Amino acid sequence: MRSVTTKSSSREAYPRAKRRNRITATVRRVSRHGGTLIEMLITLAVLGIIASVVTLAMRRVSPPDPSDPMSVISDTISSVVASGRPATLEFLVSGHRTIATVNPDGSVIADTILHIERLTGRSLRAR
Length: 127
Known about the structure:
By secondary structure, this protein is α+β, with helices and mostly antiparallel strands. The chain is rod-shaped, with a radius of gyration of 40 Å. It has helices at residues 7-11, 16-57, 69-83; strands at 87-93, 96-102, 108-110. The protein is built from three helices and three strands. A hairpin with a 2-residue loop joins strand 1 and strand 2. The chain has a three-stranded antiparallel beta sheet, covered by helices on one side.
């Protein structure tokens, strides 16, 4: 008599443990590729949250008060340089009368209470 091999006998050639290990290895390889995509999505989400918090936390710049002596002096410097004639300004700062003279070369001579740099007309407090 001849022996006939059937499908059941070929399956018995591979024990169940070996087949299970082969399937698990395949699943591990497939899931390994998807891990980088998930990591990238989480990273982008975290960066988005950080960007939104930083944007909200940024300091808003408000325009200076028009009656501020530095605003008046900076506006006067441009008009004095254009006209070529000096201008003298009077201010009331902390209850004290102060005077500032703007020359046609752009220099400013002022009382020390205003804290103005003589050659540029900029505030010394801004440094």
